[in-house]
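User: Batch of two.

Assistant: Item 1 of 2:
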Amino acid sequence: MHSIKIKRIYETPEDDDGYRILIDRLWPRGISKNNAKLDEWNKELAPSTELRKWFNHQTELFPEFSKKYKSELQQQKPALQHILDITKKQSVCLLYGAKDEHYNQAVVLKSVLNSLE
């Protein structure tokens, strides 16, 4: 298996990013689709609108957000498998727009994917 890494979409794309997947439901502000250098935009793997609004990037809610998001991801097995299949061929970079690098959906999604490998 190749690596799975996470990165803010606002960071400069690099050659070693591998397959770049945006995992936000909404397109990030200030980024052109051309500059994003995406291989895929996978909205199905993003938290639901309700969960995203409830969490509102409040650090103290992250443990509960993680639990709820993991529960939502249980309904996305084909999309999760799709990413795992890509990691068999190349590295994957999960891209997100949140400002907080430690408390966001990409952190949770990466941990779920790593547990399925």
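Item 2 of 2:
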Amino acid sequence: MRASLTDIHAIEQFLTGRLSPEDRLVFEARLLTQPALQRNVLLQQKIQAAAVAFGRHQLKQQLKAVHQDLFSHPRKRLWQQRILHYFNQ
């Protein structure tokens, strides 16, 4: 059975710590009594972790491309030397 949009929103708020203390207590009580909600929370955590990992991978690829561009062109040799000088001090 699919989680309702309300549950998805509540799970998101719960996982990000944006529920009020009262709503958090109610949600935690629901977690204790509703195995389907427990499964949906676990699935949402996995989805969030995968999204973060994907974002990191994308950023890493972009940084590699920038690094390759900046440190592979002879025209940028003076700039390269200045940057390397800062890190070699």
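The mean pLDDT is 91.
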